Amino acid sequence: MDHFGIVDGELHAEQVPLGRIAREVGTPVYVYSRATLSRHAKVFREALSALPKVHIAFAVKSNPNLAVLRLLAREGYGADVVSEGEMNRALAAGMRPEDVVFSGVGKTRIELVAALRAGIGQFNLESEEEGVELAELASDMGVRATCTLRVNPDVDAKTHAKISTGKAENKFGVAYDRAAGIYARLSALPGLEMRGLAVHIGSQITDLEPSRQAFLKMGALMGDLRAQGHNVTHMDLGGGLGVPYKAGDNLPTPADYGRLVSEVAQDWDVTLMFEPGRVITGNSGVLVTEVVRVKQGTGNPWIVVDAAMNDLARPAMYDAWHDFAAVNPTGEAMVANIVGPICESSDTFAMGRDIDAVKAGDLAVFRTAGAYGATMANTYNSRALVPEVMVDGEKWAIVASRIEPAAILAAEQVPDWLD
Ligand code: LLP
Fold it and tell me: Which residue intervals of the chain bear CATH 2.40.37.10?
């Protein structure tokens, strides 16, 4: 459920008409609903309430906006970060260092040291090599790094290949069969305090069966580690729960996910950790765009909008579907292709789609754009970096300004030896 709906013929975010934001900020612009974000944060937490010890670390990569992070900090969420930049955002938003988890296969020495200095709560190690390096750095600093070992369970999450992470051929985690040996060797290092395991099999997961298989495998591995005398107190089950992108999509809910975790992990006697991203932010945001013109062709008309693949990369990268809706729907419909202005054919949002009828100058939205939207934006074709707005009831504010091409140009220099 979200808080975007038609009031008096115009699409609103909570109580604010999207036309007002578009007029004042310009388009394209991302608009987030605070009520939707808070609701999703509560629903996800509620879904896990049957479990005794739970820690939720929001996957910052899905939406790193400072205001979004502040709101989630207030909801009691920690953060799952994958770079020093994300870590600093989480801390700036008011998340406690001990509630921050550092994931990622390529944490650099500089990042490991910065995270040790910040006193973050947990490193999810992705390799033995990383563990050895972190142990040395921690020992040099006279501290111990609290860690889990990320395991690759070799389970197919049945999602898009580019966002699948739990198969043997993916770069993430250590091989299931090697995990116990690596865990034992890392546990012996004085710089590390190994306290458990981590797993994350992919994103936009729409079938819970692969998650069940992965969690069962992790439970078995945890049993082996305990049998070998290791103290396992934490199990990080990652993120990945999918969201409906098409009106009418029928997906597992957070409650279904919570039931699955309860069934599998009820007796594990650990703190269960979660790293949800999209399920919190996805349906909390829309991308507002203006129709530049409608170009007639040999087939369907081309709706050329002022948003492009640099603002919302998901359709170009993963053939992702985002519902398209007019801000002032007339009740008429049309079949059209929706494209952006960028000079390549991958800048296509939809082909042959049934949509609200729109004409040049009309406003429209791409829905479910709150996750992996603004954060994946870039300035390709020397376009601006897209701004972000948050709405709260009748209030709204710019939470990330548009970065104009002139500001990006100003950061470039021509060396004098070129003249
Ligand atoms: N934890 C780890 C270790 C992850 O790698 C990810 C996502 C998450 C948690 C959060 O997953 P979520 O709950 O959001 O599914 N750009 C792609 C998605 C990439 C996801 C990468 N990892 C997209 O737009 O679909």
Answer: 4-32+282-410
